Design the sequence.
């Protein structure tokens, strides 16, 4: 009997907690009144439920945070007020920009406050034409289009729907990194609201240690409300991008990855060339095995024949080629706002491994694990991304917290399935086995790109194995976020 009443007490508590919390926090009129626009607050129990759900929806439904309130901030002051309010109420908070961060630790935000940055999406090019100032909620696709319309470009990433600031915080890989370095390398200065609500500027001259830290470990320190970035003229020879996809059956795997290694080894690696090698299921092409798709992007009117000839020689099942512009490259990857790569609401599990070269035996083992996934996972893909690294490697490795300038390749399964908690553990097991297979032939320890990180990696795997890096990050964490308010994305511990 005592057991039953405790059980009922716990059930009642579980049901009532969100309601009680929303009474305590969500509908706090004096907090809402401090915003210019009453519609800035979204609640799970309000008539605007759809808006609340849309604002909460994430690229991965697995490990999702839950909110009792989402504040759609429009100014830096509103970000400050919301953080101070969350501190007073001892409630966790999470910045929401593109909503694509899928690391498992974001799911530890329970009954938290979402600080939605969608209304902070303006940008302008400075009068000297050398930099753009963007607000904290600007999306990657919007930045590409805005700059392109002004004859400019910078290091932008491969998906329109992803926020631009969050990638910077972890480094930021993309199309033009061979020419300009990482997205983080474009940052000239940023305004940051810290855990205590103070807004500060960071740059090479103002708070330089923090400026170093936010370019690689930046999710740990504050909310970026605006950033000044380097931009560049689009030269006439850079206006076009050639995009080709080649579809192969799996028996070509060894030859394809050997070919990719040859490109990586080439002393004259083109700055504007990117390759993706992708495993996917397409029973029309091969009912028994995943297929391999090779995507090549080249910033010019066409891809030099020396790179396509070996691919044609392997008798692809299908080839599709087009010429486009920088925005069109994302479209080619199905990564515009309405493209399948951006689709929200599925559950996804990644297990990233960064490498300097493909070990072909390991790739085959990873392929075999991928090939054996149950049919509920047949919308999954396994990605190997090879962005040009010319300029990334030239920049002083110690100048930012990004720890892997020697890395040349990003590999990860993207296990994709309809939300179903019973599949989460299976997805994790599969992704573990793929990660193990990929590492087997690598002589180095696990290196995982923080923006793809799963959440179970060691501090060293995501922030670097050189002891000074973690020592510095830990010191800065203690100084700027002593109570761990920014501990929900790859927290420094
Ligand atoms: C389809 C897809 C394509 C991708 N392509 C690339 C790519 O080409 N290159 C690459 O490097 N990465 C890429 N990524 C990884 C991407 O960098 C991360 O998923 C990133 O976290 C997404 O940022 P977001 O703003 O969309 O997500 P969110 O979930 O909104 O943000 C991610 C994290 O950053 C925090 N955050 C967001 N905005 C701010 C801010 N202004 N200040 C402080 N913290 C903030 C959030 O609180 C959260 O912890 C891709 C991811 C996906 C899903």
Sequence:
């Amino acid at each position: 009997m005592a057991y039953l009443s405790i059980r009922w007490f716990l059930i009642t508590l579980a049901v009532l907690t969100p309601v009680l919390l929303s009474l305590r926090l969500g509908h706090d009129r004096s907090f809402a009144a401090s915003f210019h626009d009453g519609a800035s607050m979204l609640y799970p129990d309000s008539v605007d439920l759809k808006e609340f759900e849309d604002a909460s929806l994430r690229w991965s439904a697995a490990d999702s945070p839950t909110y009792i309130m989402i504040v759609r901030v429009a100014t830096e002051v509103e970000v400050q007020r919301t953080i101070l309010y969350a501190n007073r109420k001892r409630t966790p908070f999470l910045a929401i920009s593109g909503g694509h961060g899928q690391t498992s630790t974001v799911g530890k935000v329970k009954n938290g406050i979402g600080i939605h940055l969608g209304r902070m999406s303006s940008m302008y090019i400075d009068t000297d034409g050398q930099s753009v100032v963007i607000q904290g909620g600007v999306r990657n696709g919007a930045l590409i289009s805005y700059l392109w319309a002004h004859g400019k470009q910078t290091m932008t990433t491969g998906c329109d729907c992803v926020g631009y600031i969050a990638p910077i915080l972890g480094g930021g890989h993309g199309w033009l990194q061979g020419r300009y370095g990482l997205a983080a390398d474009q940052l000239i200065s940023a305004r940051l609201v810290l855990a205590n609500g103070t807004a500060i500027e960071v740059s090479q001259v103002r708070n330089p240690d923090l400026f170093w830290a936010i370019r690689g470990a930046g999710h740990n320190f504050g909310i970026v409300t605006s950033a000044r970035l380097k931009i560049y003229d689009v030269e006439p020879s850079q206006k076009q991008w050639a995009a080709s996809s080649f579809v192969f059956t799996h028996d070509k795997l060894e030859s394809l990855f050997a070919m990719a290694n040859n490109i990586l080894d080439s002393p004259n690696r083109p700055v504007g060339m990117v390759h993706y090698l992708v495993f996917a299921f397409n029973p029309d092409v091969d009912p028994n095995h995943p297929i391999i798709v090779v995507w090549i992007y080249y910033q010019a009117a066409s891809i030099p024949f020396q790179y396509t000839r070996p691919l044609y020689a392997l008798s692809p099942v299908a080839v599709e080629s087009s010429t486009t512009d920088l925005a069109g490259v994302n479209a080619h990857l199905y990564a515009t706002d309405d493209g399948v790569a951006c689709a929200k609401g599925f559950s996804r599990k990644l297990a990233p491994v960064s490498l300097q070269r493909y070990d072909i035996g390991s790739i085959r083992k990873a392929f075999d694990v991928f090939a054996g996934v149950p049919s509920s996972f047949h919308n999954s893909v396994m990605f190997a991304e090879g962005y040009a690294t010319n300029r990334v490697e030239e920049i002083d490795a110690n100048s930012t917290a990004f720890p892997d300038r020697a890395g040349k390749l990003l590999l990860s399964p993207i296990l994709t399935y309809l939300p179903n908690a019973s599949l989460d553990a299976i997805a994790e097991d599969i992704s573990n086995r793929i990660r193990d297979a990929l590492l087997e032939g690598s002589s180095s320890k696990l290196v995982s790109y923080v923006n793809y990180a799963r959440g179970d990696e060691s501090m060293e795997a995501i922030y670097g194995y050189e002891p000074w890096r973690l020592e510095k990050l830990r010191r800065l964490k203690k100084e700027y976020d002593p109570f761990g308010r920014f501990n929900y994305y790859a927290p420094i511990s």
About this structure: The longest strand covers residues 409-417.
